[in-house]
Amino acid sequence: MLLAIDAGNTNIVFAVFDGDTIKGQWRCSTTTERTADELGVWLHHLFTLSDVPVDAISGAIIATVVPAAEFSLKTLCRRYFNVDPMVVGDPDVKLDMNIIMDRPSEVGADRLVNAVAAHKLFGGPLVVLDFGTATTFDVVDYNGDYLGGVIAPGVNLSIKALHMAAAQLPMVAIEAPRNVVGKNTVEAMQSGVYWGYVSMIEGLLARIRQQQGLETIKVVATGGLAPLFTKAVDEIEHLHGDLTMLGLLMIYRRNSQEQDTQAH
């Protein structure tokens, strides 16, 4: 079994694969002060509750955009699961894609993993639209090469910013209001965030297509709020909640096969 770990700015997600099947998936808040021992005790308990044998883990792979969390996650894998993890971004972990950026090392590991998975699943050219702490657009060409992207404030981040900056604006739940013109403060805020993001997504997709000289481009959505926005954006063709985890599985298998070939 494979332990896949995606450490984002808000949450760390752990998933266990048995072949192509996710046997268990858990998340905790991203806190760099949390030690490998704390994570180990917590995960062992969850493994037991989910009937996943701890000693069945034969490999691990990590993608993190929080450098301070990497040491604890590596230590967790080595101390509690007796495996030396692959880390996306390490020179010896191959992604089978060219990163056509001014500074390739700056691209978040999760964005590259999503790009790998989306291209293998759906082909290119495509845009991966990820609704996370930030709302990101990642552009992949026909050959699977990473061309760059767009980073905008995340939906939750925008709501928090409104609430913190304006004394009379409350925290509101994110949902699709029926009317664009709100009849009260909560409806007006929900409209501004929801329909504002829908318009931003549609506008940026149109500009991406124009810049790439394409009439159409495949759009794959992922992240917690993706289902809510997929309803309103016709261009989103595919919705995949486990895109990052599946990408980690693909990258692990690709590199494991190469290691096995070299060993023989």
Describe the fold and architecture.
The protein starts with a strand and ends with a helix. A five-stranded mixed β-sheet has the order 3-2-1-4-5, with helices on both faces. A five-stranded mixed β-sheet has the order 8-7-6-9-10. Helix 6 links the parallel strand 9 (218-223) and strand 10 (238-239). It is 41% helix and 23% strand. With 264 residues, it is α/β, with parallel strands linked by helices.
**Count of strand segments:** 10
Task: Name the assembly state.
Answer: single chain
Q: How would you sum up the major sheet?
A: 5 strands, mixed
Supply the helix-strand structural class. Answer: alpha/beta
- Helical content, roughly? 40-55%
What is the tally of helical segments?
A: 7
CA radius of gyration: 20 Å
Report, as a whole number of angstroms, the end-to-end distance.
23 Å
